[in-house]
């Protein structure tokens, strides 16, 4: 059995894929690891990963990608290890309040990494969203509700699929931007992608 690397877009791990000369297709298989490119967002990720894990066995899943940070103590380009990830929009609005899915009695919204190791990275809690934050009011409301450090559009979906399939799963993200009123000029996608790929290429993948 081997490692499955899950990523939303090919661009986020292009240097890694080039290094191993992997073809431009959603699933890339090697002797030591496979790479699944799911598409952006929790729906695309849960479907692609669920379908794949149903027919293929792995001993570990590694979700990688870029992410936004609420926490200004985390530098742009820095890598973080996400230990818990919450579907932030799952629930109901109740006038000015929000009722989480737990309190509605329909399940749970937070999923954990499993089999985590010490990678010498900051460990953070995250949310997963359908809509990238870019409005001051909604950012303030979200921070008051969840008090997490980072957000992505896929992380909780990967943890969810792995928990159903009982597969060990970790999530490493490189911070490309702060969660703030939208200003695409402030995003450092190139730096985040470089640092993420340098980290991946520095690792003996079988030890992750
Ligand atoms: O142009 C945009 O507005 C834009 C919005 C989200 C993502 C992108 C990407 O190019 C990469 C896709 C990937 O990025 C993750 N991501 C990065 N920053 C954030 C964030 O602040 N909030 C949520 N997700 C973020 C996300 O996981 C996407 O899959 C471009």
From TrEMBL:
Pathway: Quinol/quinone metabolism; menaquinone biosynthesis. It holds the Pfam family PNP_UDP_1. Its EC number is 3.2.2.26. CDD domains: futalosine_nucleosidase_MqnB (cd17766). It is an enzyme of class 3 (hydrolase). SUPFAM superfamilies: Purine and uridine phosphorylases. It catalyses: futalosine + H2O = dehypoxanthine futalosine + hypoxanthine. Keywords: Glycosidase, Hydrolase, Menaquinone biosynthesis. InterPro entries: FL_hydrolase_MqnB, Nucleoside_phosphorylase_d, Nucleoside_phosphorylase_sf. Belongs to the PNP/UDP phosphorylase family. Futalosine hydrolase subfamily. Catalyzes the hydrolysis of futalosine (FL) to dehypoxanthine futalosine (DHFL) and hypoxanthine, a step in the biosynthesis of menaquinone (MK, vitamin K2). NCBIfam families: fut_nucase (TIGR03664). This is Futalosine hydrolase. The gene is mqnB.
């Amino acid at each position: 059995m081997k490692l499955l690397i899950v990523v939303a877009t090919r661009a986020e791990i292009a240097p890694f894929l080039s290094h191993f000369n992997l073809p431009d297709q959603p699933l890339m298989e090697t002797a030591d690891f496979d790479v699944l490119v799911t598409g952006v967002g929790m729906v695309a990720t849960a479907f692609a990963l669920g379908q794949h894990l149903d027919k293929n066995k792995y001993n570990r899943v590694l979700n990688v990608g870029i992410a936004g940070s609420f926490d200004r103590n985390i530098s742009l380009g820095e890598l973080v290890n996400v230990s818990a990830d919450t579907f932030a929009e799952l629930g109901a609005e109740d006038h000015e309040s929000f009722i989480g899915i737990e309190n509605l009695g329909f399940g749970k919204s937070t999923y954990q990494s499993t089999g985590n190791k010490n990678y010498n990275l900051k460990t953070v809690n995250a949310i997963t969203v359908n809509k990238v934050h870019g409005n001051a009011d909604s950012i303030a409301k979200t921070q008051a509700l969840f008090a997490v450090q980072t957000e992505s559009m896929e992380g909780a979906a990967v943890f969810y699929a792995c928990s159903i399939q009982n597969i060990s799963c970790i999530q490493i993200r490189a911070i490309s931007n702060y969660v703030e009123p939208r200003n695409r000029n402030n995003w450092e996608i190139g730096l985040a992608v470089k640092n993420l790929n340098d980290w991946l290429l520095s690792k003996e993948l079988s030890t992750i």
